[in-house]
Amino acid sequence: MNWKHIILTVVSVAAIFTTGIAVANSSRMDVNADSSRYTTVNRQKKVQKAKRAKQPVKVIKSESSVTQLSKSEGAAKNWIAYQESRGDYHAKNPTNPTVYGKYQLSRAYLHGDYSKENQERTADNYVYGRYGSWKNAKKHWESNNWY
Q1: C-alpha to C-alpha distance for 115 and 103, rounded to whole angstroms
Q2: Are 57 and 125 found together in one domain?
Q3: Taking Cα atoms as reference points, which of 54, 70, 57 lies closest to residue 125?
Q4: Are residues 126 and 57 in the same domain?
Q5: Which residues pair with 99 in a beta bridge?
Q6: Does residue 63 sit in the same domain as residue 29?
Q7: Do 23 and 59 belong together in one domain?
Q8: Mind listing the pLDDT tens digit for each residue in 83-138?
Q9: Distance (Å, rounded) from C-alpha 75 to C-alpha 71?
Q10: Beta bridge partners of 47
Q11: Quick one: 91 exposed, middle or buried, by C-beta within 10 A (0-12, 13-18, 19+)?
Q12: Range of 107's domain?
């Protein structure tokens, strides 16, 4: 846990006790400096996701998902899945209905096939095409709260 997460957690706990409002995900809160109000959606993150959606993604020419990952690659992949959906293949995002599943992939990338196999294959293709490895994708996620 880095210092930003610690500060956000402390701020979140203070918000819970002072306002009586439970915060579902303290690690994604940011403070709006102009009004000192707490928001759960980072505006900059929305802009970055919109830009990312318009960028072409290099797809690996493969019919199957990567079957053997190193221990560190597997750990990074599992970490991202936990951050995105707590590992739920049926996860829906209430703030962004265009993404779905364990890795919160664009429904357009999934082409209507929401099976576990297709989600794994598509996530691998996306990550290896965009970042080169799950470890690099994790580093990006830690810096930007998205991958």
Answers
A1: 12
A2: yes
A3: 57
A4: yes
A5: 106
A6: no
A7: no
A8: 999 999 999 999 999 999 999 999 999 999 999 999 999 999 999 999 999 999 99
A9: 6
A10: none
A11: middle
A12: 47-144
